[in-house]
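S.,

Sequence below, as promised.
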Amino acid sequence: MKKVTYEIPAIHCMHCVHTIKMELEELPGVTTVEADASTKIVVIEYDEPADETKIEGLLKESNYPVKK
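The prediction came back faster than expected:
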């Protein structure tokens, strides 16, 4: 199990949190998604076949790019 934490400035409300959770939970290998609208932080636990490239790509496609 791997764990990654991202700051996502585009998170503004609970709708954003819900959308991020729904999108990421559909990605094969993602087991847990915790998102916080107040801190704009998302913590994701995953195994293969998911990886950071796929996770970041999905977030970008969903209009929630990761802050680098």
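The mean pLDDT is 97.

Coffee later?
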